[in-house]
């Protein structure tokens, strides 16, 4: 490879736009539809461009759009702009106190040098079935706001993540994510990593239960990463846990229900049976990590 | 098909204003290395994994292989060339050398930039040796020497917080 000035390029040719407002962005995306790629943190899109796995005609840089990176905690919910960086979410004190599982999960994603750029919206739109944040969004029942030429719409995380893709239409921009603060619920994310730190996990589980003072589980919300072709809500496991105390038998029924719902991919890192076994392990650990009613919530990690 | 659009990219690199034409699709890593001839920033994987290309963008560690040069328009970039003061290695560089924290040196520029950011932020030893170093692939040292450098910096009188803030001006010497 020569060192001649300007002679080295990796991504294919594209037109670059850097709009300043949401309106301009939506107009630009609507004009180019599926030929345009929104660029958020670029931590998934640019590797794909470098390898020429995607060839958009237009790259619409969201990095200069004003007002898309706000974080608000109010009225029983956390509202996060799609362009909020993972590093910001990791360090936001009010957010950390209101929804500790978000910070705990963000710290499992990639490395600090990636989290300075990666955004919550980018992670949800990229929607890797093994990624942590889409599974967290499903477990917590997030609402996703999309803006398009025809106006805005809001989808539940479970409607947004489809087998192998998302419900985002070409030209639509994800603008805001709302995470409800569910009274009495404490969620934990437990994953089985491929390596020691960072990178997509083999499987991950975001699990939370609501329990009465006597230990009876009154509700559970659980989703898994790496268990199917999308982040998978584990309703069977939720049902198996609800209505009684968190006994070994109840947990065993929940693990069986999770395993029968799972349809994990097979690749050189592990076949489907291996990943299903890991899913059981991750769910068991996530449930074991649930704090017992009456303990000080500050003792949570 | 669109033709390769070029525009002038103006940014501050190691305290000095720099301006040069670049295609929109040019990566910041290639702009630094091939256009500005700052070849201290190394390029390994070009997919964000290895960390060799890590530079500081407005003080924060980022992968320069995952940024377009145009995205750095008007911003401040610090590279490994900005660390030494008039050809004299700075304290962090000297420590890494003394603890044998490098062998072939391929990963070193990225490691130095991440450690510089960690020191300025005041991250503790555990966070630095765990989270921060996990973002770098070193094929030679087995990390023992790099971790020893982190430990030594945290034991040093005055500690690692002595690294100059805001980089640029002071570092350019
Ligand atoms: C070394 C490395 C390790 C990683 N490890 C992990 C990991 O452990 N877990 C994990 O989950 N991820 C991991 N990632 C991926 C990382 O988290 C990605 O950055 C993230 O998935 C995408 O966020 P982004 O802001 O960078 O989006 P981009 O890369 O900019 O965009 C991703 C996709 O979403 C679209 N998009 C982005 N924002 C919007 C929006 N607001 N509206 C509509 N479409 C949009 C883009 O067009 C693109 O198709 C890793 C990445 C690297 C390089
Ligand atoms: S070259 Fe950028 S991370 Fe490897
Ligand atoms: S010193 Fe050779 S890769 Fe780190």
From TrEMBL, chain A:
Keyword field contains Flavoprotein: yes
Span of domain FAD-binding PCMH-type: 9-184
UniProt superkingdom: Bacteria
UniProt xrefs under SUPFAM superfamilies: CO dehydrogenase flavoprotein C-terminal domain-like (SSF55447), FAD-binding/transporter-associated domain-like (SSF56176)
Sorted UniProt keywords: FAD, Flavoprotein, Oxidoreductase
InterPro entries listed in its UniProt record: CO_DH_flav_C, CO_DH_flav_C_dom_sf, Diverse_Substr_Oxidored, FAD-bd_PCMH, FAD-bd_PCMH-like_sf, FAD-bd_PCMH_sub1, FAD-bd_PCMH_sub2, Mopterin_DH_FAD-bd
Molecular-function annotations in GO: FAD binding; oxidoreductase activity
Protein name listed in UniProt: Carbon-monoxide dehydrogenase medium subunit
TrEMBL record, chain B:
The 2Fe-2S ferredoxin-type domain, residue ranges: 7-83
PROSITE patterns, sorted: 2FE2S_FER_1, 2FE2S_FER_2
Span list, region Disordered: 153-173
Composition skew (Low complexity), residue ranges: 153-164
Top-level taxon: Bacteria
Keywords: 2Fe-2S, Iron, Iron-sulfur, Metal-binding, Oxidoreductase
One Pfam family it belongs to: Fer2
Annotated InterPro entries: 2Fe-2S-bd, 2Fe-2S-bd_dom_sf, 2Fe-2S_ferredoxin-like_sf, 2Fe-2S_ferredoxin-type, 2Fe2S_fd_BS, Beta-grasp_dom_sf, Diverse_Oxidoreductases
Record-linked PANTHER family: OXIDOREDUCTASE WITH IRON-SULFUR SUBUNIT
Protein name per the record: (2Fe-2S)-binding protein
Organism in which the protein naturally occurs: Streptomyces cacaoi
